[in-house]
Amino acid sequence: MQDSNEELVAYNRKFKKAILDVMFSLSDTFYVHCVPNPLLHIGSRGLQDREEREGIVLVFGPYSTKNLNWDETGIHCEMQFNKWERVRIPFECIDRMFDKSGQVNMQWATLVSAESHREEQIVQKTESGATQEPARRKEKSRVIEVDFTRKKK
């Protein structure tokens, strides 16, 4: 069963990488919805508020990314969040990709690789073993919400 899951994860990564290649070649700006994953890294910012449960939509465009590259495991770049943050997006956490016009919209099942699962167990052990959790900022949410359901008339 484990081998079968790893084969599915490898196929899922390969497929998403191929779609990503097409999106970068055909679209100036597009969006990627990433679900929470232990291997998802968004600089020192991390996931905030509802993003920790629902994920984050990242904008890939001419002014939002720099030092962009990707390999067989995921996307690596710097993205603009008030300041440039180093970002690592594993393919297995990519849930959707869609373009600015709404003409292209792809959604996948997100699979968890053994590597993600191991990382999640390490994080859980670290959190349960810690005597005191760092205080989280209790300020007003700094997450920008965009409603894509509104249609132009």
Walk me through what this model shows:
- By secondary structure, this protein is of the alpha+beta class.
- It has one domain: SH3 type barrels (Roll), CATH 2.30.30.
- 29% of the residues lie in helices and 28% in strands.
- It is built from three helices and eight strands.
- The strands form two sheets. Strands 3-1-7-8 form a four-stranded antiparallel β-sheet. It has a four-stranded antiparallel β-sheet with strand order 2-6-5-4, with no helix packed on it.
- Strand 5 and strand 6 (83-90) form a beta hairpin.
- The model is unreliable at 130-139 (pLDDT under 50).
Characteristics:
153 residues, four-stranded antiparallel beta sheet, 3 helices, 8 strands
Question: Briefly, what is this?
Answer:
By secondary structure, the chain is α+β, with helices and mostly antiparallel strands.
* Radius of gyration over all CA atoms, rounded: 17 Å
Overall mean pLDDT score? 78
Strand line-up of the largest beta sheet = 3-1-7-8
CATH architecture: Roll
SS class: alpha+beta
How large is the share of residues in beta strands? 25-35%
CATH superfamily placement: SspB-like
CATH class: Mainly Beta
The portion of residues assigned to helices is 25-40%
Distance between the termini: 50 Å
Total of helices: 3
Q: What is the CATH topology?
A: SH3 type barrels
* Coarse shape: globular
Q: What series of H and E elements makes up the topology?
A: HEEHEEEEEEH
Biggest sheet statistics: 4 strands, antiparallel
Number of strands: 8
In total, the number of domains comes to 1
Could you name the ranges where pLDDT drops below 50 across 5 or more consecutive residues? 130-139
